[in-house]
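Slide 14.
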Amino acid sequence: MFSNLDNYLVRSAQWHKLASGSSNEIYSATVAQQRYILRINASTEYAFGVSREREAKVLALIQGQPWAPTIIENNLSQGWCLMLHQGDEYTETVVAKAQILKLLIEMQLFSKGQDKTAIESIHFDYRGLFNSYREKLSQGCGNDLALQLCALLYSALQQLPAVDAALIHQDLHPKNICCTVQRCSPTVQPAESAIAPQSQLVAIDWEYGGWGSPWLDLAAVHQAFAIDVDALQQTPLFNCMPAQQFTAGLSQAIEINTALACIWYWMRSELAVKNVIEQGADQSFAQRSQLEGQARQCIAALS
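Slide 15: predicted structure.
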């Protein structure tokens, strides 16, 4: 199927297409009892705001972390990424919610240990992102609301309560979290092996990852996984912030995430030809009138 790609495993495996995300094509294959995932990258003309180069640096930086996907090869020139299958889809339980919080804490602690060179190489350029959006939107007609929203977003980010920048994922939701069972060590005694195996949550799809505002991941986790506000405030980067300031910042970050999603789907609605992948996943955003209504709500919230 992929005989023209420069990797023997990719060329020789029997790949089966999985349900795709909103941009990329995803395939799976099993070789010698090991399951692999192959991502065929969507064009950055379609995956707005994605930097494959920045993502590659992020993935290289986090390799070996228990919450990071194991990358076999990330081929930027040919546009594909080969990785291990990271386990089952996230299923909400009390334990799983606790593991989400643990994952967030571990990411923040990991951020505290990074040097200046690593940070600079994965810096997320919000100003550049919004400028690129405005440039594309200004070429079309009827985009006044989206342009107004772009102008508000950068200032809204700057107005968030001050906190150290950190490694951020920027797309944390259940479909981007996998649960893998940790295998017991060969040295485990028989009595110990009767204990239920522990699971580990892994964050996948780091296309929007980088070094930026941890408020956005905090807000995403609060919304997508219903993590308690008090628990989020106790995470390492926020535990010294007064409760009232934290609550206000979290509310602002939620509004920013909502506005970012609105802009992203608006950008996609500007495409003359819809990608087949999108038509099923983004059906609720297909009507411009819906986007206009959401944009007005976001503008009111951020003004």
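Speaker note: The longest helix spans residues 243-269.
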